[in-house]
Amino acid sequence: MRTIAIVGAGYVGVPLAHVFADAGHKALLIDVVAERVEQLNKGDSYIEDVPSDVLKRHVDAQLLEATTDYGRLREAEAILIALPTPLSDQREPDLTILLNAAEEIAPHLQHGQLVVLESTTYPGTTRERIAPILEKSGLKAGESFHLAFSPERVDPGREDWTTKTTPKVVGGMTDECTRRAVDLYSSAVDRVVEVTSPEAAELTKLLENIFRSVNIALVNELAQLCDRMDIDVWEVVDAAGTKPFGFMRFDPGPGMGGHCLPIDPFYLAFKAREHDFYTEFVELAGKLNQAQPHFCVEKIERTLNDASKPVRGSRVLLLGVAYKGGVGDLREAPALKIIRLLRDLGADIAYHDPHVPELSEFGLKSVDLAAELPAADIACIITAHPEVDHERVVREAQLVLDFRGVTRGITAPNLVRL
Ligand SMILES: NC(=O)c1ccc[n+]([C@@H]2O[C@H](COP(=O)([O-])OP(=O)(O)OC[C@H]3O[C@@H](n4cnc5c(N)ncnc54)[C@H](O)[C@@H]3O)[C@@H](O)[C@H]2O)c1
Questions:
Q1: Residues 169, 143: contact at Cβ < 8 Å?
Q2: Which of 128, 284, 292 is nearest to 210 (CA)?
């Protein structure tokens, strides 16, 4: 049995551990949060993509274990790093967590081990930042240990494409590093795609995310124009989506969220500046996407105004606060910005989200729909959670503003759409 250590037991690390355990390997998750480790070892999952019964099956079969002890890395054939890569307050890459973890790994690194970085980051991170720290072990990258980059492409909540079925891109520091990484992933995932360097693999992930960011910005800009011109943006997107080639559909919404799309493009913009290059497209998309919640608040104001109500003192019910439907992930969720802006305007905020019981940052708890729908001055659909009956929302609420297009097909005097 091969032991694969995964540093970081989060949205990426836990599904990765599941895939390796499923393939009959031993997955050893390393995390700094002791409660997470305890929870995992009880088979109690906090990651929606790996349900507790699945986790428990792996734990009971001794194919999955979690620990806070970096010393256990010595047992592993490979060490995969799935740690957060956030932005600093100045919106620049903050590699502190990653670099600190590399410092922790170095003293335990063994001759012949394979290390793969999975965190999204700018081209050059693996070679320029991680390798020198790991080499403090006295071992040499590409010679006495192997080092590669393989971006994680998981889309939490998605069932058609998972960590196992989504092709895995791999680029090593040397041909042998790539071969080792390809061999490892091929034993657990359906398809592995080789590239010739870690830099190519790092940039591949950024291209994928920037592609989405740019297209979301484009369709949101179009939504704002449609609002001005009184054209139904959903009708346009639906119609354009019928083109069988040369068009890929993106839906407008309240703004971009999640750990990846609002953050990753800035990783590339930062690195590009080092090369005296300005990624204007990337920056523009980021700017437009960050501004979309402001547009939403303005639209809420106008919709209330049409009902002769001011924002100040109005009860505004937000339906969904997670950044996307079906999950409880709040990272960079546009709803949080919308709440802040509306509160600044004096609105009385309530929210309902089946995946988010509490928003402690705002002192709010998810409210009951039956009581709140008729009571609120306006109900705004921010996240399209499949559990919420949007027809009922239109039936029971005084006024509905739909930012997700889930009420398409319904016409009602109390209904307004983006
Ligand atoms: N979440 C996604 O959908 C997604 C998809 C693709 C790629 N990624 C990328 O994968 C990386 C990881 O993201 P995530 O969403 O899994 O993060 P996460 O916040 O869900 O999980 C990170 C885990 O690392 C732990 N941790 C923090 N510091 C540690 C340390 N020094 N040692 C050990 N554990 C430590 C945290 O306690 C947490 O459990 C990021 O670079 C992200 O951009 C994320």
A1: no
A2: 284
What amino acid is encoded at 122 in this protein? Y
CA distance 228 to 243: 26
Interval between CA 350 and ligand 1 midpoint (Å): 30
Residue-wise pLDDT tens digits, 331-377 = 999 999 999 999 999 999 999 999 999 999 999 999 999 999 999 99
**Nearest ligand 1 atom, CA 120:** 41
CB atoms within 10 A of CB 403: 30
pLDDT tens, 140-152? Answer: 999 999 999 999 9
Residue 66 CA to ligand 1 centre (angstroms): 15
Q: Is the CB of 83 under 6 A from ligand 1?
A: yes
DSSP string, 116-169: EE-S---TTIIIIIIHHHHGGGS--BTTTBEEEE------TT-SSS-TTTS-EE
Q: Hey, which residues does 115 pair with through a beta bridge? A: 79, 147
Does this model's pTM top 0.70? My answer is yes
* Three-state secondary structure call for residue 350: strand
- Determine the angle formed by the axes of helices 198-229 and 233-240, rounding to 10 degrees: 130
Measured from the Cβ of residue 219, the count of other Cβ atoms closer than 10 Å reads 18
Residues sharing a CB contact under 8 Å with residue 416, sequence separation 6 or more, in sequence order: 303, 399, 400, 401, 402
Burial of 360 (0-12, 13-18, 19+ CB in 10 A): exposed
